[in-house]
Amino acid sequence: MPNDPATDQAALLALQQGDAAALNRLIARWQRPLHSFAYRYCQNRTDAEDLVAQAFARLYQQRLRLRPDTRLSAWLFTTLTNLCHNHHRWKRRHPTVNFETGPADPESSAPRGPAQENLPAEGLTPELAMEHDESLRALRAAIDRLPHDLKVTLLLHHYDHLSYREIGEITGCSERGVETRLYRAKKQLRDLLLPHVATG
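and the corresponding structure tokens:
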């Protein structure tokens, strides 16, 4: 993940001064990590792409309101997490059939991800590969069922490898609060996965 606030602030200043190419530079720096987070949150590539595009559109729309010392990484992730949350709630109220992930069941919410991500790992027997795939599906479904604040904290920490301080900037939470959320997220995951482990 890019970690150079000075470069982001220079690009933001250029964008505020009318340099449209500065937005392209920010997109080049942040599109990949933002998309990675959005995909893990939504379990749908098309939705992730749309949400990231919306985040950059909001950045452009609000560019003149941002302070020169704005930490853009935190601003972008905060904006994206809010967009993901709103989108996820809308999808639960309007379930649809998706060719990428299968039927959207608001109760079970067991995202399966793109076909290429469900290919068995090399070297596994068919039986072990099936168990591996089922475990991944169970884990994705369990993460999907976490409350928004716990889900965001867990994803940012375990997949994006952000520090407690960085997660706190994005979520508006203290470092101690981030630690508490991680503890609660892990406990809820264990509880959600226990039936799967017990029957496995």
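(Above: one complete record from the training split.) DSSP finds eight helices and two strands in the chain.
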